[in-house]
Amino acid sequence: MGGNSFGEIFRITTFGESHGAGVGVVVDGCPAGLKLCEADVQAELDRRRPGQSRLTTPRSEADSVSILSGVFEGKTTGTPIAMIVHNKDQDSSAYESIKDLARPNHADYTFFMKYGLRDWRGGGRSSGRETVSRVAAGAVAKKLLSQSGVSVIGHTVAVAGIKTGEVSHAGIIGNAEDNPVRCADPDVAAKMEEAILAAKREGDSVGGVVEVIALNVPVGLGEPVFDKLDADLAKAIMSIGAVKGVEIGAGFAVTDRLGSENNDEFIIRDGKVETTSNNSGGILGGISNGMPIVLRAAVKPTSSIAKEQRTIDLSTVEEATIKVGGRHDPCIVPRVLPVCEAMVALVLADHLLRNRASKVW
Amino acid sequence: MGGNSFGEIFRITTFGESHGAGVGVVVDGCPAGLKLCEADVQAELDRRRPGQSRLTTPRSEADSVSILSGVFEGKTTGTPIAMIVHNKDQDSSAYESIKDLARPNHADYTFFMKYGLRDWRGGGRSSGRETVSRVAAGAVAKKLLSQSGVSVIGHTVAVAGIKTGEVSHAGIIGNAEDNPVRCADPDVAAKMEEAILAAKREGDSVGGVVEVIALNVPVGLGEPVFDKLDADLAKAIMSIGAVKGVEIGAGFAVTDRLGSENNDEFIIRDGKVETTSNNSGGILGGISNGMPIVLRAAVKPTSSIAKEQRTIDLSTVEEATIKVGGRHDPCIVPRVLPVCEAMVALVLADHLLRNRASKVW
Amino acid sequence: MGGNSFGEIFRITTFGESHGAGVGVVVDGCPAGLKLCEADVQAELDRRRPGQSRLTTPRSEADSVSILSGVFEGKTTGTPIAMIVHNKDQDSSAYESIKDLARPNHADYTFFMKYGLRDWRGGGRSSGRETVSRVAAGAVAKKLLSQSGVSVIGHTVAVAGIKTGEVSHAGIIGNAEDNPVRCADPDVAAKMEEAILAAKREGDSVGGVVEVIALNVPVGLGEPVFDKLDADLAKAIMSIGAVKGVEIGAGFAVTDRLGSENNDEFIIRDGKVETTSNNSGGILGGISNGMPIVLRAAVKPTSSIAKEQRTIDLSTVEEATIKVGGRHDPCIVPRVLPVCEAMVALVLADHLLRNRASKVW
Amino acid sequence: MGGNSFGEIFRITTFGESHGAGVGVVVDGCPAGLKLCEADVQAELDRRRPGQSRLTTPRSEADSVSILSGVFEGKTTGTPIAMIVHNKDQDSSAYESIKDLARPNHADYTFFMKYGLRDWRGGGRSSGRETVSRVAAGAVAKKLLSQSGVSVIGHTVAVAGIKTGEVSHAGIIGNAEDNPVRCADPDVAAKMEEAILAAKREGDSVGGVVEVIALNVPVGLGEPVFDKLDADLAKAIMSIGAVKGVEIGAGFAVTDRLGSENNDEFIIRDGKVETTSNNSGGILGGISNGMPIVLRAAVKPTSSIAKEQRTIDLSTVEEATIKVGGRHDPCIVPRVLPVCEAMVALVLADHLLRNRASKVW
């Protein structure tokens, strides 16, 4: 109810602030007997952490995770898995001078109004640093999914209006992690990188689009009517701070099409039921149909920019101006990608377990 | 967990099939003392019901609602409000001949695989008829919101690629209900209607986009981190069968912009904090900021079409072909709009109550 | 959150008032493929309904149930099972004259204070008639449990201070339903009946104790730490209006014992792990251990009595006196028993499904 | 769903094992603006910690708590409050030799069967050490309740069959913390202490009964039908490992009474509605009525005893014998009391917040 938990059976609860003691997560409902170690989690955190490349914030955090409970002799025990990442480089001095100013497009104003006070150090709980917890939990979900052969992959498909063409799954797996924008097409990646650095030089920022794909998802995941798989995915993705839109399969493109163009026809290929196209994005009536699950998220340009903007002073409720200093990513897209993957993995792991109750035995 | 409930405090549970005894809903958590009568609910159901115009299915259902509990002497009592709409014109004969064929883009295949059996009459639970329950519950939510001055309005902004320009709130309120497509611009509405009828003549269908706006929403609704207001809205909208995408505020358009273009600057107007633009769609950090909440949903072309399509036979697991008979809307967009409004109202009513716990007294 | 739902996976939501249109329940999360018909449910409702014997209220209700959804061709479909029992003999005239008087030990005062208004007809939602919904849902749970070989039985072990001795499971199954008090010992039953009728003649009422036993429960049901099987059972039973205490296994008797007397030692009998005694009542650490689950509930004497009592007038907030007319059971114990069984069945069915997620596959 | 969370709005999630890194809790849904510091929490933990007196286990744990998040400049911020107590004196050597033996009345057998493996060091998650998290969270709940004038007190009313007589609230507040058994009557306390030490000398253990009372609870807390205040209290208390029974108000004693004896009559005293007696224990129809809330819990004799008992070997599934070494309390009653108080405080804090949604404004 406080909004810091996600999932029904595979359920996570996160905590922590940008410049407090640390950020962490409790994973409840992970089945017993899953092999799990800190390295599994660290690998995903390293993809999200700051300071990976010149495209990201220079805040230097190793983001080293500790598993506090729920794992015994290398396996999950069925009890809660608590994980914590202590904050190390939490320099809040840049925030001191603007602590009464509501940064545009940030949550400063709304947190202050909702709660009557706020932790102004780096945005406190509203910081993107909160997503450390999601990625850590997502790593456990990915491990669980891999037991069932399910994998979750992702890539950047647009930055600052620069878009990739069609890319194969193999292309994504092979290339996306090879460049700092996580674009599967190296040529397009170079152009995206250029656009990001250009914005950075201007003290400005750019947005983009990421695509996440889940492969080998069994048929049957998703619970009609409200907990449809696509509904839960939409919530999962939209709950990430920077995301302003989400679409499944062909998404907004379907709105211009005829039904006869958009319908995916069923066929049998190698003894398996498939569809000729995948405009549905692997989900029919809210339930996975065995085709790859495909979704895209619209990521806004980073709200923290060095340019002067109009704002208000929360203490005096008067107009003011602000230039947001601190250490920021000129484009958050490449670091949002592992967060999106984590959220998709969390939804799928949860529905994998929920689906165990669908039929009598 | 079964997926047929929605909301945390203001929580609904729906039931019923397309061709069973009826469809209904139990609203739990509605505060006591709210004036409510069947006419309040009927007014919204009439906007959703079939047979309103030549654009909709000829299935003839009065969709007359009965309130079974939770209201005493014209007011809610704080106990569950159960409502039922009995099915009247449930002719399932058109489905008999295709009961083993999986209709493309429908849930026939996935329901059958998930549950091992399915109610094939009109799609059973996976039918759009399920949304009657949402609209009935949404009417109660709208009544509760109106107590706080909040109103939820909507209009069709695209059909078959034909789009409206900018429309004022007054224009939406004044014009959208005056034509069968629910488009606030009468000239565009005429073109949309033409496109729908053209598709119908071909035994085909078209999709579109609806926009829903909530006015006078107080600052502070939404619970970080996962139950952000936009996250819950995204789930609410994406849980509607025909929706394939959802965006908040400027949505996917933000991905091409610079941060300096996209940020909404704070100002004080008539003593009230506002933003100069509303790219955020009234939500910052998952919490309402007092500006209008704006979202759009991508609605796919109706899946049931008269044209022949390839499919499989569920009983033999062999390839087959199908022409979907029965009575269908060539464009579901105008009837999805009241459903979207209902879902938005449900989310806002729930968060209005949730927000009562945000501060100590 | 409104408090009218129970269970996590196998989850019920109830509605309805004593003298409204009817009472009902929506069962969400029942697996697909379970054989179910109205007769299954009716059989349990008949055990609870008024007018069974001279020990119960003369209110005459057939309590005939209709299944509105979720069952197709004799089997559950995995979609919500809605059931309704329409009220027939709802004569509220006896309540008209006392509508402003708070009946002692009833919920009149607290409902009025909590909600600011109340449905005074027969207590509205706070009436014992609400338990119709529990018994109907419990019948579905019992059907599901029987698939796994689990059965739930019960008997009256005390009325007005008159107690049964030890009774075998066979004795309970064979005899408890043969007399109106549901006591497995016919001689004791006769004395109990006498005590009830004696109280009735005085315009007074008596209480008692029921015991419920679940047989063949598999090892492993229950979720530490908070959703222990005994914790959920305690809530389930204490949520019944007339219950003031609940105990598991040896219950309050353990408090006088030494650990060496109270511990149940493990042995192997016929290749199966058992315990020599069952003071734990079939639950260790909140998880079923394969022994019979045993619990007892303390049922208070019926609050509605014909004798004059002091009370207050809710409209004037002044002291007053009241004699509660209407049609009441002088002892509610025999009719509470099927309700307790239903609640135990609901908890077990839910945990049977929850336990499917305990291990990786 | 994993069972490690409790509460709806004021919701806690606990983690940690007896001999792992530590035990902790995340409190989500605590309103912003509550003054809170580590000393508030430490004071309650000190009442629960081992090594307080010669009646408790010699395990030496300072149980020093750290608040990791959710508090800024001495006040709660509305974000999750994470707290951790690191384990210091976790000597698991005593468990090594019995790691395959199921300790009678412990959860060893059921955990092993449910999860397929178990952390055998001190019982892992099933250890009473888990209650550290409850007490820490309960301290926050008590702080929140004190804002509304509500206080929660408790005392030991029976140990090994030795019982206190009637004690006033002042007597409980004044005397219960002055002796190691937490009995409000010093003479009875001395006898209880003697009985505990006698059992200890024999390598045995004893049980008892604790009573918890909540004062100044406002009228209106509790949500019919299933989330009645007494139902949630029963679950809260029964979820504590050592508890086998719970009763509200007069509890099991009501079963011998006439309705006319048991009903609490309403009167007006000093302009306030009260009842002449409090057999209902402050709750009517599941809703608090303004009278003190009174409940009692039956606590079993400590399961770990030095005497030889029959058991099974989990690795071979053969019969065996066991003497449980390690460091144990001969009577857990005095240390269960603060845990019971914590659970009552958690339920009340949650319902205080839930009740904010009961009426329209």
CATH fold title of chain A: Chorismate synthase, AroC fold
Quaternary status of these chains?
Answer: homotetramer
For the largest sheet of chain A, list the strands in their spatial order.
Answer: 1-2-3-7-4
Structural class of chain A: alpha+beta
Radius of gyration of chain A: 21 Å
* Beta-strand content of chain A: 15-25%
Helicity range of the residues of chain A?
Answer: 25-40%
| Sequence stretches where pLDDT stays below 50 over 5 or more residues of chain A | none
How confident overall, as mean pLDDT of chain A?
95
Looking at this structure, what is the CATH superfamily of chain A? Chorismate synthase AroC
Specify the CATH architecture of chain A.
Answer: 4-Layer Sandwich
The total count of helices of chain A amounts to 9
- The number of strands of chain A is 18
Distance between the termini of chain A: 33 Å
Largest sheet of chain A: 5 strands, antiparallel
CATH class category of chain A: Alpha Beta
What is the number of domains of chain A?
Answer: 1
One letter per element, helices H and strands E, the order of chain A comes to EEEHEEEEHHHEEHHEHEHEEEEEEEH
The pair of chains with the biggest contact is:
A-B, 112 and 112 residues
**Coarse morphology of chain A:** globular
